[in-house]
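Q: Okay, next protein. This is Putative proline/betaine transporter from Brevibacillus choshinensis. I've checked the sequence twice, so it should be correct. Can you predict the 3D structure?
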Amino acid sequence: MTLSDERRQSRRITSNIFKGSMGNLIEWYDWYVYSAFAVYFSEEFFPKGDPTSQLLNTAAIFAVGFLMRPIGSLLMGQYADRRGRRAALTLSILIMAGGSLIIACTPSYNSIGVLSPIILVIARLLQGLSLGGEYGTSATYLSEMASSGRRGFYSSFQYVTLVAGQMVALGVQIILQVLLNEEAMTAWGWRIPFVIGALGALAVLWLRTSMDESEQFAKMGSEKKKKAGTLEALMQYPKAVFTVVGLTLGGTVAFYTYTTYLQKFMVNTVGLDKKTVSWINFIALLIFALIQPLAGSLSDRIGRRPLLLTFGIFGTLLTVPLFLLMEGAHSPVVAFVLMMVGLIIITGYTSINAVVKAELFPTEIRALGVGFPYSLTVAIFGGTAEFVALWLKSAGAESLFYFYVSLCILISLFAYWRMGESSKVSKIDAGTGHGK
């Protein structure tokens, strides 16, 4: 291969990863807008009452959305393994756009009564279906498009764009907080970010339809395509399936604790005002996103397992102390530093979890194998993390949640300890991809 050929190939890889990542950003923006603006719209969808109770109701619906993610990962994973990664990624973005538009247009509880939260649930179910298919297919696509020596680096952009989606949601929130007062935000301002999400999803559709299909999928033989994406084929890899569950458990609980629940924790428990908390989260997540490729690149040099072990050890030991310190930290600076320590620890998981899972499965069941067991675990543990935290707070035992998070990470630490180095036994076929 000549130097010019290598440059063209590098540009093609970068272009395709950019297109896939931008769609991923919009998907996660639409998903996180719900959590970011829950403090404003919770009283619109439920009867007036205690603010914590209203947030508990919106958190329950947030968790319900996660219940659709395994179904989405099953259906979309099968579709991606049979029809292609590009087709599945295009379909998922359209479903997400529909869910956001429904939420933006749903009348309040005072207008239509109980129909209001029912419609909200339906919209979140659609978004859960979309996101369930997005994760496994996106992780598969990024891992297959990357050259074998840089898979950790390129696949880390899944969490870069995932976090960027949340940052954009927070950025929109900050802008609206400046432009609108509290009353306007609660009455109608919260609908604006959902409209933005729906329009953004339609705009990014063009990017996904112009992506190249993964070469590994395109070159998959006809015999393999007949069995592609089936649960029967997936069950031939039980160790890989249980490995995905084990390495996901602690990571997903920690991730949603520090990136989703922490915003409400800083308002309800620490006592910081909403605008300050929005800025703390925005800056912390910006730094968090920037260090993902650094950690991913490091994994290409030293392996994936050392990073996972680092997360497991420090996450188990430091989660409880970090939250206990934050409880009494009424200073925004201290709260930011403690949040940042937690996010740095989690980077050992977030930066490489996509490529680790993709390396465990062959091409014909990779999207399903990455997405389905992951989504099941996230639905049970990640999606309920915020609900568990708020429930324990309402019961007067919020500190028990800190130990719960630590225990989940400890369980994953055992999985990291027992698993091998995925990059050395990768089932991603370098010969049909971009090679070494």
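A: Here is a summary of the prediction. The chain has 22 helices and no strands. The longest helix spans residues 3-36.
Q: Noted. On to the next one.
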